[in-house]
Structure formats: structure tokens, C-alpha cells
Amino acid sequence: MNPLRPEPPPPGPPQEERHYGFHQQVPPQKTFPTVLFLICASVFALTLLVGVRISTAFSGSSSSPEPAVAAAPPPSARAEKPSPKPVLVKMPNLVGRNHQEAQDLLQSKGFVKLREHDATGQGRLLIWDRNWVVVSQTPAPGTRVDPEHTKVTLNSRKKTE
Fold it and tell me: Which stretches are transmembrane (predicted)?
């Protein structure tokens, strides 16, 4: 017995091998993109089906797949509720501040609609806000504004310019 040379298989009936000739059809195999597409399509169809069933459950009828629309309250009910007055905040002076610190200050005061622009006119994006300094702002400092609805624009330039 030589360990480097394997022993021949024992004699017996020959084992059948599968050969696919040129004229024979190879069984189809599903590729990863095909399987992924089938999964996504199934999830999408199921989501649509569940959405239609939920909307019909709320509408009270099974014949209409559209969601039910709530009836508007009578005008007397709407007139009784006074609309809350917006809380006005004094706009801080941000000119000369680090851009990131200016954004942090505005967010702490409740401002949510913040925009930023490159003040040099080059149209650059302010990727790392700590490298920029505010040179102008809108609305002007000292103006009393509603922080939830006011759009604040900070025009900034790089510290090195």
C-alpha cells in the first residue's frame, strides 16, 4: 500500500455519470438577481394587499378599496378652539461665529428650517461645518420670528479665506 497512490475503486457495476450533450437541455438555475427580484416583488405585492385590506377595514365596506375620509367637524366646533399664537424668538446675531456653533445655537432655540450657502459664490457644499465662518444671515439679527416656520439662511466662507 503506497500512501501517495490511491487504491483503485472496487470492481462492481459502473456508476452512471450525467452528461449534458449539445442537444440536451440543461436544467434552469435561478441566479441571485432573479431571486432578489422575486422576493422584492412578493414583498411589494403583499404590502399593497395589506394596505388595501386595512383601508377597507376602516371604511366599513369591502367593495371600495379607498380609505374612508373623516367628516369635517361642524363650523361651531372649529370656531370654539382658538388657534395657538406662535412663540416669537429674537433672532441671534450669528455673523463671525463658527458655522457649526451657529447651527447648534439655532437648533437649541427651536429653529428647524436651516439653509446654508457658500458666501463666495463658488457654490461649494459646506461638508465640514467647523471649517466655515458665518458672514451674513437671513433674517437679520434682532428680528422677532417664529422658529418653527421661519427659514434661516446662513451665508458662510471658509476660515482660511
Answer: 32-52
